[in-house]
Design a protein that fits this description.
Elements (H helix, E strand, L loop, with lengths): L2 E4 L10 H11 L5 H18 L3 H4 L9 H16 L5 H12 L3 E9 H10 L4 E5 L3 E2 L2 E2 L11 H14 L7 E4 L5 H6 L2 E5 L3 H10 L2 E3 L11 H7 L1
Parallel strand pairs: 1-2, 1-6, 2-3, 6-7, 7-8
Antiparallel strand pairs: 4-5
Helix pairs in contact: 4-6
Length: 230
């Protein structure tokens, strides 16, 4: 038994889950021009602190929305739009890890309201995702209180390993970008999934397993079928 950490966007999914959700919110009229203005103001205000990563920290499009309503919308969106896109080969690997008794941890920079239903869809044992700032059940135009990204992702993985009683150095991780190199270098078995140029270069030099884009197919089975396989 070991800890298996799985990234979401670009790894389990071939797309950005949050970006698609934002488009969905705009298209359905849940958010409008004011959300765009808030996002631009957030970027201007926090650019000196976060630089090019400011958009990853920017959750101000949610400001003023009730947490419960966003969760409801996100759950329906995940079920209808994202679950069918989950990559079949990664799905099968996760099923194998679960069958072997490994602890599957979904770790993502996407908001928790998207990560939770996706983690449940793949039967992950736990998940760590971005916690968006809120007060009295209403989202705020503030920096997230927790954001698994870059070095922070590694720190959260180390904390999770200690809390769950696993050795991170004996664990395994799946990821797709150079931003995850710190985490991948800290585990015993690293897997680069459809990696970007930076990660592909490092994976080749370290001898990490690489799953190319061509090797990955969209899931074609129903969620019920996946559960039966496991």
């Amino acid at each position: 038994m070991r800890l298996v950490i799985v990234d979401l966007d670009g790894t389990l999914l071939p797309c950005g889950s949050e970006a698609r959700f934002i488009v969905h919110l705009f298209a359905s009229g849940q958010i409008g021009p004011k959300a765009l203005i808030r996002s631009l103001l957030f970027a201007v205000r926090h650019w000196p602190r976060f630089g090019r990563h400011v958009w990853k920290k920017n959750k101000s499009y949610l400001a003023g929305m009730r947490c419960t309503e966003v969760e409801r919308l996100a759950h329906a969106f995940v079920t209808e739009r994202l679950v069918p896109l989950l990559r079949e080969r990664l799905h099968e690997r996760i099923a194998c890890h679960r069958a072997a008794g490994d602890h599957v941890l979904l770790m993502t920079g996407s908001p928790e309201f998207l990560a939770r239903p996706l983690a449940q869809a793949i039967a992950a044992d736990s998940w760590i995702a971005t916690s968006c700032a809120h007060e009295d059940g209403i989202y705020l135009a503030s920096v997230p209180t927790c954001h698994p990204f870059g070095g922070e992702k590694l720190r959260l993985a180390q904390d999770a390993a200690r809390r769950l009683g696993f050795s991170l150095a004996e664990g395994m991780a799946y990821a797709d970008t150079g931003e995850d190199i710190e985490l991948l270098a800290a585990v015993g078995d690293a897997v680069a999934v459809a990696p970007d140029r930076m990660l592909a270069k490092r994976a080749r030099s370290e001898g990490w397993e690489i799953i190319s884009e061509k090797q990955i197919l969209p899931a074609r089975r129903s969620l019920a079928g996946i559960g039966q396989r496991a």
